[in-house]
Write a structure and sequence with these properties.
It contains six helices and no strands. By secondary structure, it is an all-alpha fold. The chain has one domain: Ferritin, CATH 1.20.1260. Helix 1 runs antiparallel to helix 3. The radius of gyration is 16 Å and the shape is elongated.
């Protein structure tokens, strides 16, 4: 399948995953539980999360469209499905269930999966495209630090 069609499919899947994650959050971001959490001093304002995730999913969709047009295998589908599941699951664990320690484990696993994409599927055909994963990886390290702070100081 051509990369441009795959790009549209991955935009729908990735932003759909964000929407499902947002659904699991419910009103918790503005709710009592989250507002009373001892959050890290470097926690960005709320609008940064939306902007960051929009950029991340745009870059991830571009990367995936080229990856799947070159290497559409069961392994690639599995790794992508795992990343999508972990991304959605974090919201459910953290905001819905308030299982901040399990959410931390979840986000570390997601980071490993995205780094796996970067290291494993970055050969000569995808060498330049793998750098589209850097915003995702960097943001996940920020998210790990924020989640770790919540685990340690609440």
């Amino acid at each position: 399948m051509k990369a441009k069609y795959l790009f549209i499919i991955f935009l729908i899947l990735n932003f759909g995953g964000l929407a499902i994650g947002r659904y699991f959050m419910g009103d918790e971001v503005s709710g009592v539980w989250y507002s009373q959490l001892n959050k890290a001093p470097w926690t960005p304002p709320g609008w940064v999360f939306g902007a960051a995730w929009s950029l991340i999913m745009l870059c991830f969709s571009i990367y995936l469209s080229y990856l799947f047009s070159i290497r559409n295998s069961k392994v690639v589908v599995f790794v992508y499905s795992l990343a999508l599941l972990l991304n959605v699951l974090w919201n459910y664990l953290f905001f819905h269930l308030h299982y901040v320690s399990y959410a931390l484990i979840n986000i570390v696993l997601l980071t490993i999966v995205i780094i796996y994409f970067f290291c494993t599927f970055g050969d000569e055909k995808l060498y330049r495209f793998k750098y589209l994963l850097l915003p995702y990886i960097l943001w996940l390290f920020v998210a790990i630090s924020l989640n770790t702070y919540v685990v340690l100081y609440n």
